């Protein structure tokens, strides 16, 4: 556990002996979860610090149309919802579930606050974590308003989600909604990429990348 914590942003640059001493005087709990178990839903209270020790978690959002959009996967050493531990609205921004057997270290909010006051390096690490996430969010907002074409948005999606030059689209309507565009417009872009031999349709909702340079992979 200590080796995993050493890799987290919270305990960054803190040696294992010091981490062990900190844990000995800190009240914490190890929460265990089974595969496919739900940990939290969007709107549930974030009650403190959550650090993944084992397993993979999936974050998802449910659209107004009832479609589920996968946001990202969280792995050991990741801190969950760090920006929502403090502030006026302490609630999870996404649904959180377990992909495989998982363990999470939990420190209640007041206990974590005591830890921040007593350990200057942890306070600095946590402030850096919040600042970095705020800056990342600002960049994402800027990019979304930066007149990206549908084709550019789709190419970025392919680049991030491809594996061995293969990718799939589970729900074209949900993806279009995620991009903030109409489904027919996205479908037209996809058809053009296939026609221009940038992509090859190899099965239902499955595609192969033919032009790697075009997608900047």
TrEMBL record:
PROSITE patterns: CNMP_BINDING_3
Residues of the Cyclic nucleotide-binding domain: 10-133
GO cellular component labels: cytosol
N-terminal signal peptide: none
Gene3D superfamilies hit by this protein: Jelly Rolls (2.60.120.10)
One Pfam family it belongs to: cNMP_binding
A GO term for molecular function: DNA-binding transcription factor activity
InterPro entries associated with the record: cNMP-bd_dom, cNMP-bd_dom_sf, Env_Response_Regulators, RmlC-like_jellyroll, WH_DNA-bd_sf
Coiled coil: none
PANTHER family: CRP FAMILY TRANSCRIPTIONAL REGULATORY PROTEIN (PTHR24567), CYCLIC AMP-BINDING REGULATORY PROTEIN (PTHR24567:SF58)
Protein name: Crp/Fnr family transcriptional regulator
Originating species: Fusobacterium nucleatum subsp. nucleatum
